[in-house]
Amino acid sequence: MSSRSPFTSRYSRRQIAKTAAAAAVGGVVLGGVSFPHAFAQATPAAGEAELEIFSWWTTAGEAAGLEELFKAFTASNPGVKIVNAAVAGGAGSNAQAALQTRLSANQPPDSWQSHPGAELKARYVDPGYTVAIDDLYTEQDWDSVFPEGVINLITIDGQKQLVPVGVHRGNVMFYNKDLLSKNGIEVSDDWTMDDYFKAADTLKAAGVPALALGSKDTFAVVQLFENTLLAALGPDDFTKVWTGEVGWDDDRVTTAIENLAKYFDSVNSDHAALTWDGAADEVYAGKAAFTSMGDWLYGDATAKGKQDSIGWVNHPGTGGSFVAVIDGFTMPKGAPHPVNAKNWLITCGSKEAQTAFAPHKGAIPARSDADASGFNDYMKWSAAAFGKDAVVPSLAHGSAASPQFQSSVNDAIVSFIVDLDVETFQQALVDAQADAQ
Amino acid sequence: MAQGALERPAARTASPRRRLVPERLLSPLILAPSVIALFVFVYGFIGLTFWVSLSNWKTPKRDLSLIQPLWETYHRLFTTTRFQIDIRNSIIFTIFFLIGSVGVGLLLAIALDQAIPARGLIRNVFLFPYALSFVVTGVAWRWIFNPDSGITLLMDHLGVNWLLARFGTGPIRVDWLISPRVLGDIPMPDAVKAQIGIPVALIPVIIAAVWQLSGFAMAMYLAGLGTISNDIREAAALDGASLYRTYRDIIIPLLKPITISVLIILGHISLKIFDLVFAMSGKGPGFATDVPGIFVFEQTFGANKYNLGAAASIVMLALIAVVIVPYLARSLREVER
């Protein structure tokens, strides 16, 4: 090389090689893991300047709720940069897949969102990804502020593992007010499955599908099934069916499945093309009378300005029971910023943060002592029920049974919608139970 | 030229660095990193997946101990109705998708091989769908086949449905995508719980896939047609062969290597298909459009049944190997010759 280029004169070859290697390694790290705290680890001086929170709260109301929690955290922990590691899509299934990958690679965020019960146990506690937080409960005196049913669900093998933030109700029947009054149908919280099917006959005769269903969302059908099952079993035995104390071959389970098939006598014909919110649109528009859905539907209606067209009542036959879909946050083992993580959980459990969070998310606070003055009509109804009803876990939302069982039920129900074969479906439930043990 | 040829041997002996790394070592050295990476990240992980498929790992907690009996997970996999349906769908999809893409691609290529105006433009128009991502294609075609929008809406607006109503027949409502029906029922042994036929909901997905990839087949055929010497065409014309006979008996047989390449490339795409189906119809009503890829994703990351997901992956690999291995063996023979 007779004439040196400016490039080689400024940097020695070895330096270039080093830089290239570093860039390559950096690329691999970022490509494979790509987490903001990969940088924080590289500069230990940054210490506890960050807090990374993982969730699947990305839609408007959910994100706004999460933002309220962030605001509350920043108020008591100024100067900490919050990294929102939310993953969108698939009602959390995409996020759970992404999280599972991170956890098995020992790259946990500082806290992540989970439903209590079986999901918490099977996905996070049993593999040893979390740290029990009994001390925090004692320190913050939380044992008295959360209802017993909630405490039971967040306690896994005798240890508390989750701080609940908000509570959704899964067994709500929303209806179009005009359609019901036009057809002379009255509903109340103590109505039964028979009352519902009588109303369905009236509506069918009037040429209106009684039920709007969005079976493109498998969870919507599973939720319809669990509400129907709850009506057949009652809250005590409904809880026992998940522990095996009541068998899936029980006659009342058969009744529930028969009722599930019966809904399809009067259902929207395009249910296979719709998701749950598409089904909700049919009810807002008066094209169908009822839809059985969790109370996030109320948030959807409010966002679309349709909340005045609908009324609500609990799913027929489930008065006195509250199917709780609870969101909470965990304490990871090996959290990158353990002090911040603990402070985050303290924020999540605080009355102020929960009160600010709930209206955006369309949930009610998990604390029974939260301030109800800012609640809308729906929330007041739900909060009153939460205070007195039996709290039961939800299968469709992960709390009642392991992911394995849940997935088997999902598969069985997809086939059931097509053939409405009661016996095959019940056998699939029995098999799934045997399989999951 | 001559000068350069003279100089080269001189340069070779003059450079001492060449002897430090002998030439016969150079190519293995350069290849080594990629060979190592290949063995670790491809064959190593295939081996690992196979191991997982034989293990007890069916919860989020890793458990690589071997299951007893060893074939337990595979037995469960093949007796699962859903997986039987998936294999059916995968095969039906592959057959019709290959016939469609190759057929349409060949016709387009032959049409564009004629002296028609704006050939270059038309060729690009047909090739453009290939540049789209499967997810985009899936979403767009989902809207087209949605029973409330797309074709149904078009028929409403064009007045076709109004006309049909006047003639006393029902309106055109394309609800294939939400139909759980399966056309035909080929008798099978009792162990096969899936109904073997053509699922109606799969038809729109096949149409979308053909739309996207027939342009690719066309491009391959156009390249092939370009290599066929004009002498052959002229000889055929002199012998009085019609255009139809020229293509049927001369040109299309000459394109056989292209056809085989297209079939292999599209065949392995279709056996692995995931994103198009996931975006367009998901599992479909009664698993009418479910494919092994979706099954693997849901069992592994949804249900955390890692061994079942791994077993399904290995079955997918075997299906693809059936397509790819003969092709590789054939091209390897050609190289040796």
Q: Any key phrases for this structure?
A:
heterodimer, A: 437 residues, alpha/beta, D-Maltodextrin-Binding Protein, domain 2, three-stranded antiparallel beta sheet, 19 helices, 51% helix, B: 337 residues, mainly alpha, MetI-like fold, two-stranded antiparallel ribbon, 16 helices, 2 strands, flat, disordered N terminus
What's the layout of helices and strands?
The complex is a heterodimer of chains A (about 425) and B (about 325).
Chain A: H1 6-10, H2 13-32, H3 37-42, E1 50-54, H4 60-76, E2 81-84, H5 93-104, E3 111-114, H6 118-125, H7 134-140, H8 148-154, E4 155-156, E5 159-160, E6 163-169, E7 172-176, H9 177-182, H10 193-205, H11 218-243, H12 251-263, H13 276-284, E8 290-293, H14 296-303, E9 310-314, E10 321-329, H15 338-349, H16 351-361, E11 364-365, H17 377-388, E12 390-393, H18 403-419, H19 422-436
Chain B: H1 2-14, H2 17-20, H3 23-53, H4 72-79, H5 81-113, H6 119-131, H7 134-145, H8 150-158, H9 160-166, E1 182-183, E2 198-199, H10 202-227, H11 230-238, H12 243-254, H13 256-272, H14 275-280, H15 292-302, H16 306-336
Antiparallel strand pairs in B: 1-2
Helix pairs in contact in B: 3-16, 4-16, 5-6, 5-10, 5-13, 6-10, 7-10, 10-13, 11-12, 13-16, 15-16
- Order of adjacent strands in the largest pleated sheet of chain B: 1-2
N to C succession of SSEs of chain B: HHHHHHHHHEEHHHHHHH
Rg of chain B (CA only): 27 Å
Mean pLDDT of chain B: 87
Proportion of residues in β-strands of chain A: 5-15%
Query: What helical percentage do the residues of chain A reach?
Result: 40-55%
CATH topology of the largest domain in chain A: D-Maltodextrin-Binding Protein, domain 2
Oligomer: heterodimer
The termini of chain B sit apart by 33 Å
Instruction: Kindly provide the radius of gyration of chain A, computed on alpha-carbon positions and rounded to a whole number of angstroms.
Output: 25 Å
- Average pLDDT of chain A works out at 86
CATH class of chain B: Mainly Alpha
Any idea what the shape of chain A is? globular
Return the CATH architecture of the largest domain in chain A.
Answer: 3-Layer(aba) Sandwich
**Main β-sheet description of chain A:** 7 strands, mixed
